[in-house]
């Protein structure tokens, strides 16, 4: 299959797509345009509406309101089999009485593709997911990860105009997950597919997608390229989801020359405002990896007492506490010991400042990590 390309549609458009389950709104007025050939990731925690959106696209859930258009054709009234989409489910959805080969070939047989062509395409799909030697086995004889790869092969062998993937790598081990991530992206490119990919894993989404749609409680929180969402999160919710583990609620001291100083007592940080900071409180967002040991001339610094230190190979992940009780997560290339006092520095441009409040100190909030309300706190209705 490698190297083959098929004509992609121009665009897919969702207009005001809404899905309710009784009085609970799982997805609210989703407006989205997906370009042909694009790899789009729907990202968010359980309950945010991402799987609901995927099932609405697939035709497995009727819309409560809104419409879906493929180029100029409205398709939300079409049954799933007439949409021409491929679907990879989180729970595999394989035929237990059919061999791996026959599972992968099933859709081609229904479409009356010639036997020689079916054999060739199935062989290529099985090789792609490294299951050639298991072709004669039944799904029940495979591991969960192997079954998921059969599901991926079954979807891509059809060369659909849109591939919908719902957490397809969730049951794979870490090494195979990285490998399959690369293969999924390569398949997407080589076959000229359009892919909508649901995941709760921000690293997975960043690695695979051309654009991210981050959902929260059934609504879009931010849309952008991986670089945009990673570097310029639009809110503390996005920041927390994209790795800004330090979300520190602090008084806003001064604002001038495009910079904001936040802090209290001897604890001061200068950062870059991401929105207008007009109130008395602000949230400073910093990634653990953006801290380093302070050196001569460093000004944006803070002192912490190390409480936890974990060896992660090339770096140490640590948790420390400031004099005022603020919990700080940081990563350093060298070991630090619990009880050790160290001075950390962070570049001004790596401190993002948002309006509002966060979880300031351990004593003040009871939160172990010192984080603001994170993605898990924002989950909406249960997804279908």
TrEMBL record:
GO MF: ABC-type transporter activity; ATP binding; ATP hydrolysis activity
GO cellular component, one term: ATP-binding cassette (ABC) transporter complex, substrate-binding subunit-containing
Residues in ABC transporter domain copies: 12-242
Keywords recorded for this protein, A-Z: ATP-binding, Nucleotide-binding, Transport
InterPro entries: AAA+_ATPase (IPR003593), ABC_transporter-like_ATP-bd (IPR003439), ABC_transporter-like_CS (IPR017871), ABC_transpr_MalK/UgpC-like (IPR047641), Mo/tungstate-bd_C_term_dom (IPR008995), P-loop_NTPase (IPR027417), Transp-assoc_OB_typ2 (IPR013611)
Start and end residues of each stretch annotated as Disordered: 359-384
Protein name: ABC transporter ATP-binding protein
Species in which this protein is naturally found: Actinomadura rudentiformis
